[in-house]
Description:
By secondary structure, this protein is of the alpha+beta class. It contains eight helices and 13 strands. The protein has helices at about 10-15, 15-40, 75-85, 135-150, 165-170, 185, 280-285, 330-340, and strands spanning about 50, 60, 70, 100-105, 110, 160, 255-265, 270, 290, 300-305, 305-310, 320-325, 325.
Amino acid sequence: MRIGLRLRPFESVSGNPFVRRARVLLLLLTLAGIVAHSADAPKAFDLAGPHTNGLGMRFVPVPGTEVLFSVYATQVRDFRAFVRESGYVHMRETADSLSRMWSQDRDGYKQRGHSWENPGFKQTEVHPVVGVSWYDAKAFCEWLTARERAAGRLPAGWEYRLPTDHEWSVAVGLVEEDGKQTSAEKDGVIKDRYPWGAEWPPPAGAGNYAGEEAGDGAWPAELTTLKGYNDGYARTAPGGSFKPNQHGLYDMGGNAWQWCEDEHRPGVRVLRGASWRSDLRVYLLSSFRYSVRPADRYDNNGFRCVVGPSSPRPKSLSNFFRLRGRLVRRQVFHGLLHSQDAGFLHRS
Length: 348
């Protein structure tokens, strides 16, 4: 049975002021709905890139990988949005003293009460976030995945995560590395290849490393710097301060070490790319792998996100951070990690 509504001809009610006002209101509401839908409707996700997400983070494809790389390392403003929206409990607010941030001054590395919000030197919203652990980086990626999926900006089966060690190598130009080998097997093997090319010492504008500008009065006397090199930034530099590489990625060398997904050896995770504190030639090699415990936080460690097909999550990370709708870390992880490599020394 068809059910319908019989409407009077327009002429028969057009003189009624209540009807006229109702029609005007209906028209305004309809137009408002169209405008709102147009403004809020997410753009289709282009699997071939480039792509800009809801935080304004830009991602581009890197040939030889199945992911899109963020053109910048994750910035302060991105991490701030994560903490504010998720209620993430940063380790600065917990009793786990071993995982509180380490920062450098003239007396070396010490825990001084600093955090990603105040690493001990001035940062703007577009500087790379530092003082974050591997766990912090993973928490950010999981939150961002959930956020973008809820907004319809991320297709099913895709996620934000850290790059694998091999993906990072491809992005920096080491396409000849064997993806089946471990990071430890490839550590420093390819010589005389740097993010800027084969030239040594680094040419002007190569990146934010420990040049002569680092001698600002807060530099430990026992540490060296790159003689004859000055990049103008004693600590971190804003994203985009130096030229991007061939894929349009900034700071694949220098500024802040970048966490990768991989375990380098039992108890420690891989970081790539060197930082504002790096001056030794071996550290600046594109093939060099740095590693610290995943719970550690230092003022020259940050991370870069990729977005791509979802990968199986390690069992140790299932139930990673959910508790009453908030993202938190399980303290048991830190207790286990602190029993390993407790005396590991941060050297770059």
